[in-house]
Design the sequence.
């Protein structure tokens, strides 16, 4: 059945306008993005089929161009549209961090870091440089690869923090394995970084680990 033949209350666009986006299912939201279906499937049915095949939105959104284009009803044009939407979301979340101090809206910080780091196939180590009112000056990925004492250099972190005239920093890195619990290597390098930055009067406010939909805070665990 074509979507136009459905009752208005069951059409994703009309439902969103009347009830708000939070009232829509994942399939209905995805159907709005897809706009059209394929032979034998309307946009909602196609969305349901894609979600059933991929199991999660995250897996679908993190697919490479080749993987994405191989799925029925999708292709290069849809891939570029999706990447544009995801990048707009990341930039929106970054604006939230820039507009407020990080402790006025810690959820925005978590959302932003999760949007930046989840789904990556390799580990990256990111630093948020903050001013003396805990507002974001800049964020930067400093290191790539497994996070341990051999790959994260305190000297480089201190140099970068001084370069941006930081009063405080927040660290973040991802666990592609999906296990959010901090490892002993995570704890060790965090202590070393704290010690190095303390010598130049720069506070480490937190270290966040992003693993899939989970985000663990060292500060909340009492590890900082």
Sequence:
């Amino acid at each position: 059945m074509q979507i136009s033949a459905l009752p208005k209350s069951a059409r994703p666009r009309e439902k969103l306008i009347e009830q708000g986006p939070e009232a829509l299912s994942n399939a209905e939201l995805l159907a709005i993005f897809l706009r059209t279906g394929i032979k034998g499937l309307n946009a909602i049915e196609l969305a349901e089929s894609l979600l059933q095949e991929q199991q999660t939105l995250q897996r679908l959104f993190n697919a490479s161009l080749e993987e994405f284009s191989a799925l029925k009803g999708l292709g290069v044009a849809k891939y570029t549209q999706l990447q544009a939407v995801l990048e707009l979301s990341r930039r929106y979340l970054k604006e939230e961090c820039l507009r407020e101090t990080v402790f006025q809206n810690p959820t925005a910080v978590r959302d932003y870091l999760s949007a930046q780091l989840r789904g990556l196939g390799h580990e990256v180590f990111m630093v948020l440089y903050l001013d003396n009112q805990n507002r974001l000056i800049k964020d930067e990925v400093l290191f790539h690869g497994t996070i341990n004492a051999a790959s994260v250099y305190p000297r480089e972190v201190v140099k970068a923090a001084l370069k941006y005239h930081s009063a405080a920093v927040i660290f973040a890195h991802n666990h592609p394995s999906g296990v959010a619990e901090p490892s002993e290597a995570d704890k060790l390098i965090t202590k070393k970084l704290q010690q190095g930055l303390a010598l130049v009067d720069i506070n480490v406010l937190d270290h966040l680990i992003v693993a899939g939909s989970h985000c663990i805070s060292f500060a909340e665990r009492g590890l900082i």
User: Anything to note?
Assistant: Residues 19 and 100 are 29 Å apart (CA to CA).
